[in-house]
Amino acid sequence: MSYSIAIDGPAGAGKSTIAKLLASKLNYIYVDTGAMYRAMAVHFSKNNVNPLDEMEVDRAVQDVDIQIQYDNGVQQVILNGENVTGLLRTEETGKMASQTSKYQSVRTKLVDLQRKLSKTSDVIMDGRDIGTVVLPDAFCKIYLTASSKARAERRYNELVEKGMECDFESIKNDIESRDYQDMHRDISPLKQADDAVLVDTSDMDIDQVVDVISSIIQEKMKA
Questions:
Q1: What is the Cα–Cα distance from 25 to 14, expressed in whole angstroms?
Q2: Domain at 1-28+123-223, CATH homologous superfamily
Q3: pLDDT digits (tens, 9 = 90+) for 45-70
Q4: Do residues 126 and 14 lie in contact, with contact meaning Cβ atoms separated by under 8 Å?
């Protein structure tokens, strides 16, 4: 029997970081669904696809092949034979992914692969609709969130550390705008699954979050 853990939540909540640490701690396979959608977004950007034109997006999806590989334990995302891992976390890619992930053709192509992985291995997946749509029968579901201010501060500090110029209010406004868009899209909107455990990380550091979720999983194992 394989176990699956679903971690959902808004942009900037730390889902990917926490999911990776948990996967390493529990010896699960980490499936970065967000990276898969972002890889799709890179494809759209490279081919100048209009994210507002659903028919154009539908056509572009047909030309996409996305593979997940590991190099010394580090996940690498391969788009049509090209390693695009370094392009996945740019602001441009993030916005494109948010605009195009709502389309059915994009979601259908990726969800099938994600479900197949969960049936053959112990996995941890993070995203916007893992517990509600992709893995509705997941063994454990977590809804990871933080205030928009806390998420903006984390993003601002991250960019400053990289030597990039940025504006805190712009980052905060962008996060709130993406929250609204993700929560109000027609297909698979962002929401907490009825059986998901809410974990607010606004006042927690990474180690505390990992410990809290590990405890939740352990308790479910005992039940």
A1: 17
A2: P-loop containing nucleotide triphosphate hydrolases (3.40.50.300)
A3: 999 999 999 999 999 998 888 887 77
A4: no
